[in-house]
Amino acid sequence: MFLCGLNKMKNEQISEFLQSRIDANDFPSAVYLVAEKGEIVFQDALGFAVVEPERIEARTDTIYDLASLTKVLVTGLLCAKLIEEGELNPLAIYHLPEFDYRQNFPHHSDLGTWELIYHCSDLPSWKPFYLLCDSRESILKEILTTPPEIKSSLLKVKYSDLNFLILTFLLERVYGKRLDEIARKEIFEPLELKNTFYNPPKELKKRIAASEKGNEYEKQTCIEQGFYPPADAGGSDLFRDYQIWGEVHDGNCYFMNGISGHAGLFSTAEETFKIAQQFLANQTTLLKPETCELFRTNFTKGLNEARSIAFQLAETKDSTASNALSKDSFGHLGFTGTSVWIEPEAERIFILLTNRTHAHELPFVNINSVRRRFHELAQDSLESKL
């Protein structure tokens, strides 16, 4: 059931708080959903999903660019399916023929699948492959020739898009299909999702929250890191300069035709909730219940960040879960202003979707404090209902 903006289950405290942040220009719109034991408890939509070139109010069924939530909702879930089927292990990376020539890539001779899933590969956080490669397929070789950023002999967690780009190609080789086709067959269709996809249909544009006007953020990042302008090109046509609306914001994913394991997923709060349920043992229909233990287990104990399969754990210092959620809660953030956190024991799911990159000059607002307060208010409200 879609409430279509009727706000029948809104929580006054949460809605008032998020509206105050809209008024403060943190983001133009917000849709939130709080669920417990498989039931939606609170839900509301506030602000404008599109401010320019026209004004369109946000609704509870507004579709958002989920950005890096793709890493958990698609890539992490598919990896978990392969783990329980025995197809994904530390050596599974050698499904990629490129690693047969790993003697030519000494930087990554010891790289395994788990290092990618836990973000322990020491690869750089990001590179503008749209400036470095001539095709989607050449990205993998570019990554393999990228030296790790080892600054000490100690193993550490370093969050990196490159990890999940490698996993994109790995999943496509294992399944023998493109990632969007895999996700549709393995996730979207079994869950009967109608508003979740890569590359949303053009006819749905007015239901989609708009993002940044142009790729000014990435362009400035490329300049600061010395990637732009490249020696053989200098034109601004390498970056989009129009209102990004209905297509993926992330530049690398856009270069990859909108299909990647690190970004590219679009969905509503309610359908994000349906995927999030798959990570809970008592609610999943796509995984074995015991597989869900992988998401609440800290596989990087003693390191600088607590990570499970694809997710960050709430026991990580300064995580956006806030102290309100249990330490084995797990979640993820998206650059566009999205987040999902899951509390396994209480079977609670917290989803906050915003479009902080829209109608806002640089720098974009860091909304981590907003995410923490959202979780605190939601948890307090759930506890008060007991």
What is the SS-derived class? alpha+beta
In total, how many beta strands? 10
Q: How many helix segments? A: 12
End-to-end Cα distance, whole Å, is 25 Å
Q: Strand percentage, roughly?
A: 5-15%
Low-confidence stretches: 1-7
What is the arithmetic mean of pLDDT? 91
Strand order of the largest sheet: 3-2-1-10-9-8-7
Helix content: 25-40%
Largest sheet: 7 strands, antiparallel
Description:
The chain has helices at 12-23, 70-84, 113-117, 129-132, 139-144, 161-175, 179-188, 216-224, 251-255, 269-276, 293-296, 368-384; strands at residues 29-36, 39-50, 56-57, 64-65, 197-198, 265-267, 312-313, 330-334, 338-343, 348-354. The protein has 386 residues and is of the alpha+beta class. It has a domain at 76-187. The strands form two sheets. A seven-stranded antiparallel sheet has the order 3-2-1-10-9-8-7, sandwiched between helices. It has a three-stranded antiparallel sheet with strand order 4-6-5. Strand 2 and strand 3 form a beta hairpin. The longest helix is centred in the last third of the chain and has 17 residues, at 368-384. The two termini are 25 Å apart.
